[in-house]
Design goal:
8-stranded antiparallel β-sheet
């Protein structure tokens, strides 16, 4: 499993070539920044991927789940005839073919790779698509989450049989503060796109580019957002 971590900067993590054995697009002009990785299964990881302008790849397919969020740039999937831009998202089930890709301008993505609990149907499969038209809504009351005035969510994908298994964007207004300590039964991985989070309970500060991997049962909060925050959050069920 991926190691547990609290909010921390990813700035000092190096960009490295993608290994030849990886089930991933790889080659000259493609690098990765590993945010978290299962020491017993390198395909179970969270990473940033940077593709330089002009890169072309072959067709890609792999045996794990993959969720992708485009942080910046453009990614053209010539095989599936879709063009992904900043703010686009997809959820690929195992063995879903994607590519070949062409990169007309530098592109950086956040990627989550994982193996879900056996027998889990999971989030619906989707190709790269815009999230612009998905509405911002109040935090759902049927999930293990902080909520309140000044905090909204945009649901990118959700397991129809388990609302706690979802991928979402979270927006907190400046000055919003969650007053309670949070804990839940699922995995939660968080990437700060913009803004600041202050976890007063764990005494850590997360700013743009910060990341954490919370295993089930990890306490966090109360959390203050002095200048607001825009977050990408992945939630999924444990393997056992």
């Amino acid at each position: 499993m991926k190691p547990q971590s609290d909010l921390h900067s990813t700035e000092e993590i190096p960009w490295t070539p993608i290994g030849a054995g990886a089930s991933s697009a790889k080659g000259e002009g493609i690098t990765e920044k590993i945010l978290s990785i299962d020491p017993d299964n390198p395909n179970n990881c969270t990473r940033l991927v940077k593709l330089e302008k002009g890169v072309r790849t072959g067709v890609v397919s792999h045996p794990f789940w993959e969720e992708v969020w485009i942080l910046k740039g453009t990614l053209i999937d010539e095989g599936n005839k879709v063009t992904g831009k900043e703010g686009y998202y997809c959820c690929r089930h195992p063995d879903m073919q994607h590519g070949p890709f062409y990169v007309p301008e530098e592109c950086i993505t956040v990627e989550l790779h994982y193996t879900p609990k056996e027998g889990w149907d999971g989030k619906p499969q989707s190709d790269l698509h815009s999230t612009e038209e998905i509405p911002w809504t109040p935090i759902r009351t049927d999930t293990s989450s902080s909520s309140g005035a000044g905090m909204t969510e945009k649901i990118l994908s959700v397991d129809p049989n388990n609302p706690d298994s979802c991928t979402r964007l979270i927006k907190q207004e400046p000055g919003f503060k969650s007053t309670g300590i949070m804990v839940h039964t699922f995995w939660e991985e968080l990437f700060v796109i913009k803004g600041t989070l202050i976890d007063e309970g764990n005494k850590v500060v997360g700013k743009e580019g910060a990341y954490c991997c919370r295993q089930p049962g990890m306490l966090h909060g109360p959390i203050d957002h002095p200048d607001g925050a825009f977050l990408l959050e992945f939630r999924y069920m444990p393997q056992d």
